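Sequence design from tokenized structure. All designs in this work follow the same two-part layout: the structure record, then the generated sequence. An example of the structure record is given first.
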């Protein structure tokens, strides 16, 4: 890396007031990258198995080889429903504004992207933090532009697969993502 020093600070509160609420903030600072981010999770909205997640972010990035800088800010929010112990469905909305600066010129006008995504995932791992057996499968359909407006128009389908197996006392993990 061409960066000599990176500073990362993070603070989080999980299971706030014994209700599983989570709040957090993260900041990163280096010569080429500056970010701030705030996150929250409300695990049971109105007492049912619907979770609300949110993220607010700001990112400044410099690329000296390509002689440009970018600034982006926005938010993401996700509603997810846990149908069983292994299956979760979610709906996500994201709004992001990005501005580019080439060389030493002024920043160009910002471009806004608004996207909506639907996802389904199945998690049968024995332990999500230290997996030794099981699978994780996630599918997501995402669209931007059109009736959601914004500068970007795209449709994207993504499939992610992780599998963990014990072979001769060692753990083999495979992670694949296709889009």
């Amino acid at each position: 890396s061409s960066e000599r020093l990176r500073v990362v600070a993070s603070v989080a509160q999980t299971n706030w007031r014994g209700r599983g609420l989570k709040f957090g903030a993260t900041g990163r600072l280096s010569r080429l990258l500056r970010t701030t981010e705030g996150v929250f999770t409300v695990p049971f909205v109105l007492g049912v198995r619907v979770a609300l997640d949110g993220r607010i972010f700001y990112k400044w990035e410099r690329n000296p080889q390509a002689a440009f800088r970018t600034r982006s800010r926005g938010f993401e929010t996700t509603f997810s429903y846990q149908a069983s112990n292994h299956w979760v469905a979610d709906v996500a909305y994201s709004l992001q504004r990005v501005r580019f600066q080439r060389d030493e010129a002024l920043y160009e006008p910002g471009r806004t992207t608004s996207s909506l995504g639907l996802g389904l995932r199945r998690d049968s791992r024995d332990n999500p933090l230290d997996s030794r057996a099981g699978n994780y499968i996630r599918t997501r359909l995402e669209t931007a532009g059109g009736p959601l407006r914004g500068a970007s128009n795209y449709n994207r389908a993504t499939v992610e697969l992780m599998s963990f197996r014990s072979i001769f006392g060692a753990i083999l993990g495979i992670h694949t993502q296709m889009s």
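The radius of gyration is 19 Å. We note this feature because it recurs in several other targets discussed in the main text.
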